[in-house]
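Shapes recur. Our protein:

. . .
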Amino acid sequence: MRFTKLFALAALAAFGFGAAPSAHAQAVIDKNRSYFSPDQQFGFGVNNKGGTIQYALGPAFHIGLNLALDFYKDSSRSDTYYDFGPYVKFLFSGDVIKPYAYAGLGVVQANTGSVSISQDTLGAELPDAQIRLYLAVGAEHFFNQNVGIYGHLNLVDAKLSPSPSTTSFGLQGATVGVEFFF
């Protein structure tokens, strides 16, 4: 009798374990968290305007510093700007190509100015530095966690200081480059 109760209890437990839903959890894979996105890595980049230094906080969010030499051409003038400042990049889910949104803040110094020499003095007049905000959209392809190529179109260029403040919308130039993470 004792053996029968033990056998019945074991059969009930086996049936209970067999009838219970499977405990095999399938991993949810976010394409931004794939093997090919850098994660918590420092890096540097080279692009058509200069260079960058960046850090991947995660596979979908990068922060960095622009070290750019930007050639600005307009119908009325042609200037060269030195553009240094922070940026953030948010990468959206994607398979081979990951689209992203980009925002950069730049301290821009135009290389225009004048130098005057007279008998008694030497003078230099430099233009005021400008604070600019850039908003862009683009896409990036990572060959592995260490190398990626990217390109974005600048859609907004807002000059915040000195006054007068201006904002330009539309195609404001493009940036293409390569990033290396280690």
Q: What stands out?
A: Residues 2-19 form the longest helix (18 residues). The two ends are 69 Å apart (CA to CA). Residues 4 and 10 are 10 Å apart (CA to CA).
